[in-house]
Write a structure and sequence with these properties.
This protein is α+β, with helices and mostly antiparallel strands. The chain has 7 helices and 6 strands, in the order E-E-H-E-E-H-H-E-H-H-H-H-E. It is about 45% helix and about 15% strand. The protein has a 6-stranded antiparallel sheet. Helix 2 runs antiparallel to helix 3. The protein is globular. It starts with a strand and ends in a 10-residue tail after the last strand.
Length: about 180
């Protein structure tokens, strides 16, 4: 079985007393926290209790802000992939699913990913929130503004790794309420 990062949406945040009442499945990605997940939780990012695991290793963020950031970057990446039908299909499926599953917040679950190294999962999540996610957001903002063409070229050459996650109404961990 692959270790995955899981992305959900909810209208409230998980807390010490429980998880949100309505949790919508967004995406899962094998063996990594992909760039798309980092950008989607890139606005108003905070650490929250996990909905799946015991340590406080959930990552929450503003849904509208993260979705807009990803859409803007996909547009910039797409400017160099006009003839790529596969990329266009990926963008269409991703944006349609984000529109359908919209809520107040994204909640990213990284427990399987941060547990792969043997390091402290809570420390790994703190590093994601304080370093990896802000770095991804800064690179994306620069690329969208036309100031990071080399990075955009690298994304275009390997776009599946960064953007082709599994988007679905049901993930490996699906919550029913």
């Amino acid at each position: 079985m692959a270790n995955r990062s899981y992305l959900y949406s909810a209208d409230s945040l998980p807390n010490e007393t429980g998880i949100p009442q309505r949790i919508r499945c967004i995406s899962e990605h094998n063996w990594d926290v992909p760039l798309a997940h980092k950008l989607l939780v890139g606005r108003g990012t905070s650490i929250v209790p996990s909905m799946i695991w015991n340590p406080p290793i959930g990552i929450a963020a503003d849904y509208a802000g993260g979705a807009a950031l990803l859409r803007d970057l996909l547009g910039a990446v797409g400017e160099g992939l006009e003839g790529d039908v596969e990329f266009a299909d990926c963008v269409a499926r991703t944006t349609a699913h984000l529109d359908k599953q919209q809520a107040e917040y994204f909640v990213l679950e990284t427990g399987e990913i941060v547990s792969m190294t043997g390091d402290d999962p809570a420390a790994s999540v703190r590093d994601l929130v304080s370093e990896d996610i802000p770095d991804a957001v800064a690179r994306a903002e620069a690329a969208i503004a036309g100031r990071n063409d080399d990075w955009l070229a690298a994304l275009r050459s390997d776009w599946q790794k960064h953007f082709a996650s599994f988007y679905s109404d049901a993930l490996y961990f699906t919550f029913t309420h």
